């Protein structure tokens, strides 16, 4: 099946989409390597930590607004793309739900900055960070993935990220300029969202939301939302937890390292995103065979990446950040480096296999159990072992999720209600 894909017209489409998405991921790796060291030195650890905590809150709200449509809607679009009328109905159904969730998300921000002391101290930072939520909501990434027009996503996203990176050097000149970071970041997301939204209109026509279909859509996607939120508990939540317990400065140190590791681990995301629309149209037995053939090369490459990061950890951190405080926590980065191996295999199962066969509940169980496990371990770890405890919780959680997902994969006859 893998060879037939590579030799077919579909294979060329997948390869083109992968190249486009890889270009985005390259920007996601290179541009932060330019901006992050500058922000760490200019804002200093405490202000940088504050900005990263606010950004983490934005990530949580983005997951709420996305609601799992990055998987469910992408899959449905790939199946309906030849029927413009049904495709348009789905398009506006999804946007109706997203609009409602944007309103709910902003109300959450207002409640936090009004009633919670931790957020009342710097309310503007959290309000400005909402820009990334709004921009992400209006950019129909799920739609372009489903119709396999990845070049659109590439152009718009890279343009927005380049503008944000360049603007940082003009507007953030001292620690007092920290509010410009969420403003520029949110502005980049909103600009990308408006452009992406305008381009998507050429593929659909307007239809009023069908509330009976909306209800079914929300019901089918709810488990994906729970899964994605659980994922955020260990991919983004650790910075937030550390900031609440150990302070903004250590949160800034941890975030600077975590962002490097996550950017590197996410080199697999373009591959899985490019394959998903094609794979979702296949029979379950063929999907299983395809994923089994990918396990060995994915595992080997993930292991090599982790090993290299561990070996070059100290000179890499010094070269990128040139910050004595960050250098002193090199061991934390070496612990986090193991994520590149475990997450490569995790994503193969939870981001590609289970969604492709529409076993959303199995995906949810693996991620929810892992997310709750991380929440408990990270809180205890942060309280008793500070930044080291949080780093250990991150890698142990990745291994734990791999074990659960691997068990479900090896026991396909296990039935879970709703899968």
Automatic annotation (TrEMBL):
GO cellular component, one term: plasma membrane
Protein topology in the membrane: Multi-pass membrane protein
Subcellular location: Cell membrane
Chief location of this protein within or outside the cell: membrane
Transmembrane region(s): 20-40, 52-69, 90-113, 125-145, 152-174, 180-204, 294-313, 333-357, 364-381, 387-409
Annotated keywords: Cell membrane, Membrane, Transmembrane, Transmembrane helix
UniProt-recorded name of the protein: Uncharacterized protein
